[in-house]
Every structure is written in C-alpha cells, then in structure tokens.
Design goal:
Helices cover 41% and strands 17% of the residues. It contains 18 helices and 17 strands. The chain is of the alpha/beta class.
Length: 429
C-alpha cells in the first residue's frame, strides 16, 4: 500500500512549481492537496482537476479562507470552520504519513496539525520562496549576528519592528483593530471553542517566525531561505533541488527567438516617485542588449504578476504602445513556469522567485536580475535574496555585473542539494 502525503500550501500558485515533483512522487505515494481560495481561478481549478483525473493526486480541496484578497469577513471565518469540519469527515487525516506545510500560523493549518493529523505523522515545513526577512537583517546574519536576536525584532519575518511606519488614518487603524479582534477573539477563541472545544491562540514566536512550534524538518527551495532556516533547524534543515524535464542543449539556446520579462507588482514602487515610462525604457534597453548577444531574439514576452491590478496593466500596456515597442508580447500569467521555461533563451526582471524557478526548470536559460527594477523595492542588498542560484545580477545603472556570492565563504555555498523524493524516502526508512 502506498504511503500518504498531505500538502498544505496557502497559495495555490505555489503548487504550480511543484507539479513535476507531484507527478513523479505519485508513482510511490498517494498525494492530497489542501490550499485556499487565495487568487484562485478557473484555470488553476481545471489544472488540478486534470491532475486528479490522471491520478497524480488523490484529491484537492480549496478552503474558503478569504473573502477578498487577504481580508476575512465574519461569514468567511465561519465558513472556514464549517468547511474543515466537513473535510474531516471526508478525509481520514490520521492515515497521512507526511504532512508538508508552508507555515503553522494560519488557523486552518493549526487545526490540521493539532487536531486532524496523527502524532505519528512527520511534519515537514516547506519554504517555497527566497528568504523573507529584510535584506539588511539578512546581511547582519551573514556577518555573524545571532539569528534569534534578529527574529525577535521582526513582524511575521518581513518587517523590522524597530522601523516606524508612516502614520495611517484613523479609519485604517480602526479597521486594523477590528481585523485583529476578528482573528484573535472571534476566530481563534470563540468559534474555535464551539467547533473544537479548544482555543488556537497565537503563541510566543507566531508573529515573529510564523511558527512557535517547529516542524520535524525544514526544506527550502532557495539557498537564501536555507541559510536562514539552517541557523534555526540545524541538522534538520535541507536544501532541495527541484527536478525539471528540460531537453535543451547549448546549441539550441542561440536558436530561440524569445526572451521573457517577469514583472513585479508595480505598486511596490514608491508611488508618484517613479515614471512608468522610465521603467519601461529600462526593460527595452536591456532587451536590446540581449539582442546584441543573440541576433535571433525578436520577441519579448511580458508576464504580469498574478496579483497585478487591471488598471495598472492598462497603464503599462498603453505606455508600451506609446513607446512603439512592438516586439513586446503580453502573455497569460497562469501558464506553469516549468512548462514555458524552455521556450526562452533569456529571462529577466526585478527580483522575484519566478526568475529562480525559471533557472531551475531549464538547464540552458540565462536569467538576469536588474538593479534599476529591484533596488527601489528591496534596498541596497537586494541581490542577496537570490544568492547562489545562478541568477546573473546586472547593475544596468552603471553597466557592471555584481558578484553576490562574495559575502559568504565557498564552503557554506557548496551545500548539498537533495532531491525531494530522496529526502522523503530517507525519513520514511
């Protein structure tokens, strides 16, 4: 009988980058997917339905966790608990041998780990993106600062609590207060007590580390996140190498006539301090630089971030038309990166996990991260986020390349990358 794996990820788009791994693992394991309705669309549902029909996964369920983007109404909070109770009757959670999850922070994950799965089930934390902590703090970590000293000054791994935010309006502060009370008082205490006879209050490091209670193991797909979590998990932390089905060889690269631009959220740039036309010009200029190296290039596919606002898309498309950049083609953002990576000789953009995934999924694609599109968002140490991933960091302001590996010694960089199936088989034996 096959061993059983449960994968719990909040973002269904994150599952997209695991589809090849899931296909391969399905030969030896029964796989159940559990995710939320965050940015969920019909294309994703269709894709996972096909995976179920092809018996790559046993089932997939979408928790009605959000009412709108990342907000939760009282109605949605109640629906989440009702849905989980029904799911508990449909799925025998006690039979799972391994449970993968991105955090233990959201209440639906807490319920699964503390109430649903067996104590014998191996709990594995899965970090599907690069390091989340501010890169100024990551630089301090590399320089030798204590990891827990850094963690205790963070809010949800991302924001340094010592840095004061700009004052928000009284209305926003009141809305934030109401949202906190819905989460802490209504969701985790009152409704949880009704459904489970217990409360799921936040624990000591929940708002710092997103997990007070550790997983049995921590897996990371990015070196920077591995470097961080290895300081906490030590021997139970592993760097995972995602497999690909690339058939490209070096001779075929120069024959490809397309490059791809991976766009970040344009709202990340400081409002009213950046002209869209300047950013578009930087994109165009770098594409022309690539064409000098590869004369076959005649098309640049432009991929928007999945969360991008429709009005912003219209503004950018209008500016590209105004600049007469007819070599740019706008593409759908719901195509799996693994499926499209081998169509391109080059990929570039602002700092993003998508750039690294493209590099992982094709053996012969050159991937560039541009300073002019990244530094404004991530600060002067932006290049540390994608350290040791084969991404070329290009300072297109000064026309120089950046060696982002100089800050960590070679012994630490030369860490073993395990295949996911190799890791799973090792912990089950």
């Amino acid at each position: 009988m096959k061993k059983k794996i449960l994968i719990c990820l909040k973002n269904p788009f994150a599952i997209d980058n695991l589809l090849l791994e899931i296909r391969l693992l399905s030969k030896s394991f029964d796989i159940t997917l559990l995710t939320t309705n965050y940015l969920l669309n019909n294309n994703l549902k269709k894709k996972y339905k096909q995976y179920k029909e092809m018996k790559y996964i046993k089932s997939v369920n979408y928790i009605p966790y959000f009412s709108n983007r990342l907000s939760r109404s009282i109605k949605t909070i109640i629906f989440t608990h009702v849905f989980l109770k029904k799911l508990q009757k449909q799925i025998n959670f006690k039979n799972f041998d391994i449970c993968f999850s991105d955090t233990k922070f959201d209440i639906w994950q807490r319920i699964i780990f503390e109430n649903f799965i067996s104590k014998k089930c191996i709990q594995v934390g899965l970090t599907v993106d690069a390091v989340l902590i501010p890169l100024e703090d990551f630089k301090k970590l590399i320089s030798g600062d204590d990891v827990m000293k850094i963690v205790k000054n963070l809010h949800k791994l991302r924001q340094d609590k010592k840095i004061k935010n700009k004052k928000t309006s009284y209305l926003n502060r009141f809305q934030n207060f109401i949202n906190r009370q819905k989460d802490i008082l209504l969701d985790r205490r009152i409704i949880s007590k009704i459904f489970y006879g217990k409360e799921f209050n936040h624990k000591e490091l929940d708002f710092n580390l997103l997990e007070t209670d550790k997983f049995d193991y921590k897996l990371s797909f990015f070196y920077s996140s591995y470097y961080f979590w290895n300081k906490i998990y030590k021997k139970n932390s592993f760097l995972i190498n995602l497999k690909n089905d690339c058939t490209c060889d070096e001779s075929s690269v120069n024959k490809k006539n397309k490059a791809i631009f991976i766009s970040t959220l344009w709202s990340e740039y400081k409002k009213h301090e950046y002209p869209i036309n300047e950013k578009i010009q930087n994109i165009s200029t770098f594409f022309q630089l690539l064409r000098e190296k590869n004369p076959h290039l005649n098309q640049l596919d432009f991929r928007f971030h999945p969360e991008e606002d429709e009005q912003v898309k219209k503004s950018i498309k209008k500016e590209i038309i105004n600049q007469n950049l007819n070599f740019i083609n706008f593409m759908e953002n719901n195509i799996n990166l693994n499926e499209l990576s081998c169509n391109y000789s080059n990929a570039f953009g602002a700092l993003s996990g998508a750039l690294v995934y493209l590099k992982k999924f094709c053996n012969n694609i050159e991937v560039y991260c541009l300073r002019s599109l990244s530094e404004e968002i991530y600060g002067e140490y932006y290049y540390l986020k994608m350290i040791n991933e084969g991404v070329i960091h290009y300072d297109d302001i000064n026309n120089i390349y950046i060696n982002n590996q100089q800050f960590i010694n070679k012994k630490e960089l030369d860490v073993k990358r395990y295949n996911l199936d190799e890791f799973i088989f090792s912990i089950l034996n």
